[in-house]
C-alpha cells in the first residue's frame, strides 16, 4: 500500500510535475486483487456515507481536475459506485454560459455545493478559472472585469486568495474538501487518445479541441504547479494522483476518501430513554394491529 500522505501537496512547497510520478507500483498484485480491494473500499465507503447522512453535521466536497483523458470520469464512476445516489451529486462544469459570466467566477459552482449529510463531486470546478483561463487569458475578456485592463497581473493572486477564503469558509461551516489532480504523462495521454479514435464506442469522447489543448501541455503543467502550491491548505488539501494506471489511481483515491471520512468520527444519532420508550409503545401498538 502507498502512504497517501506522500501525495498530499504542502502549500508553498516547490512542485515540479515533470519529476512527480505518473505511475507507481505495488498497490495491487493482479486484476482480481484490484477488484477485491476496490470492492472492500466501496463497501466501507457505502457504510460511511450512511453515517454521514445520519450524522448530518458535515458535507463532503470532492474536486477532480486533470488534463484530458486522465481518467476523472472513470475514477468517479468506479470509486463511487456503491454510494446511494440520493446522498451524492456529481456536477460537471463546462465552458461558462453567458448568464454565468454575469456573476463572479465562484458563483456557478457555489450554487452546486453539497448540503450537510451529502457528498458533492465537482468534475472540474472553479479551479478552471486559474487553469484554462490562465493558459488562455483572452477568455477573461468575456468576464468583463472592471480592473482587468489596469491590473492584469494581479488577477491570479486575487483569485487564489478568493479560492482559499471560500474553502476556509466552507470548512468552518462543516464542508470537508478533498481535491484530486490526476497526473497523467503526455505519452499516456497520447495512447489514450489513439485508443479513443480506434474504438467506435469511444469516438464521442474525442474531439479536435483535445489535440489543440495538448499543444499547450507545458503551459498547463506550469499553471497547475502554481495552482497546487497556492491553494493546497491543511484543511483543504490537494492530492497529486499518479494516473497512468487507472486502477491504481482509483484505489489511491478511494483510500484517501476513506481515511478522511473516518477521521470525522461519524455516528448514528443516539436514541434517548424517552424516545426509546415511545418507540416500544409504538411497537406494541403495531403488534396488536392484525389488520
Description:
The protein has 291 residues and is an alpha/beta fold. Helix content is 45%, strand content 11%. The protein is built from 11 helices and 5 strands. Strands 2-3-1-4-5 form a 5-stranded parallel β-sheet, with helices on both faces. α1 (31-55) packs parallel to α10 and α2 (72-79) crosses α10. It is globular and about 75 Å long.
What structural keywords apply?
alpha/beta; five-stranded parallel sheet; about 290 residues
Instruction: Give, in order, the helices and strands.
Output: HEHEHHEHHEHHHEHH
Q: Helix segment count?
A: 11
Derived structural class:
alpha/beta
Q: What does the main sheet amount to?
A: 5 strands, parallel
- Helix content range of the residues, please? 40-55%
Shape: globular
Looking at how many chains there are and whether they match, the oligomeric state comes to: single chain
Beta strand %: 5-15%
Strand order of the largest sheet: 2-3-1-4-5
Rg value? 22 Å
Instruction: Please state the average pLDDT score.
Output: 93
Low-confidence stretches: none
Distance between the termini: 57 Å
**How many individual β-strands?**
5
Short description:
With 291 residues, the protein is an alpha/beta fold.
What order do the helices and strands come in, and which of them pair?
Elements: H1 31-55, E1 59-66, H2 72-79, E2 88-92, H3 98-101, H4 107-110, E3 119-123, H5 132-135, H6 155-172, E4 175-183, H7 186-198, H8 208-214, H9 217-231, E5 238-242, H10 246-262, H11 273-288
Parallel strand pairs: 1-3, 1-4, 2-3, 4-5
